[in-house]
Amino acid sequence: MSNTEAAFDARSLTKRFGTRTVLDAVSFSISPGEIVALLGPNGAGKSTLIGCLLGFLLPDSGSSHMLGHDVREMPREARARTGYVPQTMGGFGSYRVGQLLRYLAAFYPGAPTPDSAWLSWAALDPKARVSTLSGGQKQRLAILLALQHRPEALILDEPVASLDPQARHDFMHLLSDYCTATGASVVISSHILSDLEKVCSRLLFMRRGVLVLDVPTTTFHAATRRLTPAPGAPADWTRLLPQALHVVGRDPGTNAALVGNWPDHDPAFALDNLPWPIRIERPDLEAAYLEITR
Ligand SMILES: Nc1ncnc2c1ncn2[C@@H]1O[C@H](COP(=O)(O)OP(=O)(O)OP(=O)(O)O)[C@@H](O)[C@H]1O
Fold first, then answer.
1. Which atom of ligand 1 is nearest to the CA of 23?
2. Which Pfam families match (predicted)?
3. Scanning 27, 130, 190, 216, which has its CA 20 to 30 A from the CA of 286?
């Protein structure tokens, strides 16, 4: 992969099911080496977006490119440089673990085998039948299958949902090491925010099919503030905020506004003009997530 070629490039992806718009003009580009979190509540459109990114789903408009190729006409050699961990792994029940790894590896150049660090992390008996694996073991197998050919562009749809805390912790470290060693790019969708903020360099927040915020993790931590006016402020108090401030979320319960571009060098700047005292706090990712995706 060249250093400048985007691993993933979504261009105004729109997808409807019947009359319902499930993705609405979603655009972003992911560079080599980035690990990007895809965040959003149930039904926000994450799996639909992943389907369009990979080419499993056809968008109604817009396009998706992976490693410089339109996914609708991706050459087999380029497709072999990508990997995907689905939300649930179905089928292959009658295979044994080792047999399935070898069978699928044969589709890739050089019939690769899983890296020893990943094999020992997965701790699967190669002779076990896939149908007898627990949910978490199936998830480990899906991860091994997606990684054994060392993909440069990898998408993981809720890969850690059934993993125990130790396996999740170790998975996140291995994934981070893998990207550092290979320069691979990763999109990872998960509801476990504490895991994601440790390894992801960028956060994509989705709300009802719209990409509402796309921000580097460091910027998110440095420049996100919750502004809460004293009681008595009207619901539309944010219209009095300086125009340069970008409101990225609201909490109707507390009347707070989440601002995504707080200038740290000049705290409380220009809030003096507001008729109510404003409390300014740094929110953690979980609290901010609720306000951004509400
Ligand atoms: N094949 C389909 N036909 C009709 N509606 C669909 C179809 N697939 C998804 N949807 C709808 O599209 C919306 C987005 O679904 P999607 O699976 O992309 O959400 P998600 O963000 O991945 O959710 P979760 O976190 O629960 O996995 C949902 O309202 C869902 O009901």
1. 14
2. ABC_tran (PF00005)
3. 27
